[in-house]
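**Protein fold record**
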Amino acid sequence: MSTRDEKERLALVQGTLDLLILRILLFGPQHGQGVARAIQTNSEEVLLVDHGALYPALQRMEAQGWIAAEWGVSSNNRRARFYTLTAKGRKHLTSETGRWRAISNAMARILDLETLETQES
């Protein structure tokens, strides 16, 4: 069952999802559901991470050495894998954040062309 709001949420490309996960883990260890919830909450419900994308991303990032995982118990007393950011992950987060800021600024300039053309006229 899906709602109109769910259909309007943005789909995440792989690199974006990786960056979002790394950013959330910067604040401390988190299990997969907690990561997804933090992204959704901090994006003011705009970004919804599908578990079908989240868990493969976490596995891929663990294989890259960007995150580490260990078993623990969640706040609702269930066994869960908790993910933490590694030194290699922090380095990747820093470089990718700079790259995404540059892309975002370039996109904003292009999206604001109408405003610039109007101001120049």
